[in-house]
């Protein structure tokens, strides 16, 4: 709780440079509500024992215990850390106060929504990837179809290979997860 308190106080003090104490407090309470909601979403992921067996979470990222990669999912304290003094200065300098508060709130909601999507994907497909397993499977199927029809004459450029390498890693993760789920069933 002291980390939360520190972030709340830091943000409230900064907002009071631009807003009345009451308006600053109201904004901070809205920010705090979004941060607590992000914590709830993270807890929804961490409740699953399989998650704790496969991943390590540090408040910023879920990292696989085996292999490379990470999935960004900020907890509430780290979410509030996004609201830096320089960000608040810039928004209030360039926007009306009401618009600056709306934009700061939007920034927090965007990150909280990312965590929410990861939770929903974990609960439905046992993946933290923002690309669903169905989509990855469709990409794989299309790649195989195109490769079979084009033959060896049509290879991907280096740029294309780099672009698709990330999706191939996610597909491999998804396949491994599917094999584990089939064995468990």
List the helices and strands and how they pair.
Elements: H1 2-15, H2 21-46, H3 49-54, E1 55-57, E2 61-64, E3 71-72, H4 76-81, H5 85-94, H6 97-125, H7 133-150, H8 158-184
Antiparallel strand pairs: 1-2, 2-3
Helix pairs in contact: 1-2, 2-6, 5-6, 7-8
Please give a structural write-up:
There is one protein chain. By secondary structure, the protein is mainly alpha-helical. The protein has two domains: 2-130, no CATH class; 131-185, no CATH class. It is built from eight helices and three strands, in the order αααβββααααα. The chain has a three-stranded antiparallel beta sheet with strand order 1-2-3. β1 and β2 form a beta hairpin. α1 (2-15) packs antiparallel against α2 (21-46), α5 crosses α6 (97-125) and α7 crosses α8. The longest helix is centred in the middle third of the chain and has 29 residues, at 97-125. The relative contact order is 0.10. The mean pLDDT is 87.
Task: List the main descriptive attributes of the protein structure presented here.
185 residues; mainly alpha; 2 domains; three-stranded antiparallel sheet; elongated
